[in-house]
Amino acid sequence: MTMGAPTGVTSEVGRLDTVLLHRPGPELQRLTPRTNDQLLFDGLPWVERAQEEHDAFAELLRDRGVEVLLLVELLVEALADPAARERAVRDLVDERRVGLHLADALTSHLTSADATTLAGALVGGLTFEELPAAEGASLVRAMHHPHDFAVDPLPNLLFTRDSSVWVGDRVALTSLAMPARMRESAVLDLIYAHHPRFAGTPRAYAAHSAPLEGGDVLLLAPGVVAVGVGERTTPAGAESFARSLFADGLARAVLAVPIEQSRATMHLDTVCTMVDRDAVVMYPAVRDTLSAYTLTPDDDGAAGTPGVRVAGPAPFLEAAGAAMGTRLRVVETGLDPVTAEREQWDDGNNTLALAPGVVVAYERNAETNARLADAGIEVLAIAGSELGSGRGGPRCMSCPVARGAVA
Ligand SMILES: NC(=O)NCCC[C@H](N)C(=O)O
């Protein structure tokens, strides 16, 4: 691992240099028909196959010259720091769930655990039957089913896009909306705060808590950021994020884009991603209805509190083009409305750009991929039948840490 390697992202399509992925592991084995809805999976992935698919994704990125950072490796390395281990134990032990008695036993058990064991618990969670023995009787242990979670697993850590976002040279830890994902930010915080590679990295959105998820954040062009507002990111999240980006000089325009609050469109990147400097792949059902409020910094705000101006709403493509100073080309999810609906559901719009005009996409979305190819986009197709059962594609499964500047 290189210390002090370059970091920073100003666009969706600049040459991808470094990316953070999470190879799915035992946390996926926690999914059962009883828990998958609450844990935000639409089915039960075949874990070994999901890992093979993910390994092939990571290999493709490496073959294309991308440095792949794996979340658990970073986490174990970060946990070499005793301060990180102390924090991890605090994050893992929830007195409200396990009660004081078991909390004490769990704390002393975890305090003497090694970094790999702690990382395993942070990612995979713990069931009541996996808790250490404690002296004396425990009503909590007696009344819980042995398979109940004393610490929830994090199967959605796979979707590294959502839990942290790089804008310029800063990293923002997001504020995840769904209870099943809230603990992910603490895991990412451990890595960014304690891994030597990220020492001194400035934060964006640091003191804000309104819901904001990375799948809603698109870096349309240097200084121009779109933020979806729907099932996950709230209007307060979008506004606070914009204020924070303006205060740090990271953006000159932020587009707040209302999206339907539904499972199929949980994030903006489920209906629209960038595939070239001036091109998006977009779900046709929203093409003409998607709108945007344009936020810009208001320098007349009271001293110390950067204000915002709010314009619009205007049609999204118009507002985005105006802020970017270009006209966006649109490649639509293929073919007919039914195929488009199926391919949107299977993350056909959720592409990861490796460079302008080069994207990774799920192979199953044949019609959308054909349209992209017709539009001159190079499509690198990967298998994702198991990975996709959590409803996320190549963009959702990747957090760019460093990209080259776009010309
Ligand atoms: N950016 C994305 O669209 N991420 C996919 C997240 C899927 C995950 N199962 C979730 O519901 O949050």
Automatic annotation (TrEMBL):
Q: E.C. number, please?
A: 3.5.3.6
Q: Which EC class heads this enzyme's classification?
A: hydrolase
- List the InterPro entries: Arg_deiminase
Q: Which GO terms describe its biological process?
A: L-arginine deiminase pathway
Keyword Transit peptide among record annotations: no
Which domain of life does the protein's organism represent? Bacteria
Per the Swiss-Prot or TrEMBL record, the active site comprises C396 (amidino-cysteine intermediate)
Gene3D superfamilies, per the entry: Arginine deiminase, L-arginine/glycine Amidinotransferase, Chain A
Question: Primary place of residence?
Answer: cytoplasm
Question: Catalytic activity annotated for this protein?
Answer: L-arginine + H2O = L-citrulline + NH4(+)
One GO cellular component this record assigns the protein to is: cytoplasm
Q: List the Gene Ontology MF annotations in alphabetical order.
A: arginine deiminase activity
Q: Which NCBIfam families match?
A: PRK01388.1
* Record-stated family: Belongs to the arginine deiminase family.
Protein's recorded name: Arginine deiminase
- The gene from which this protein is expressed is arcA
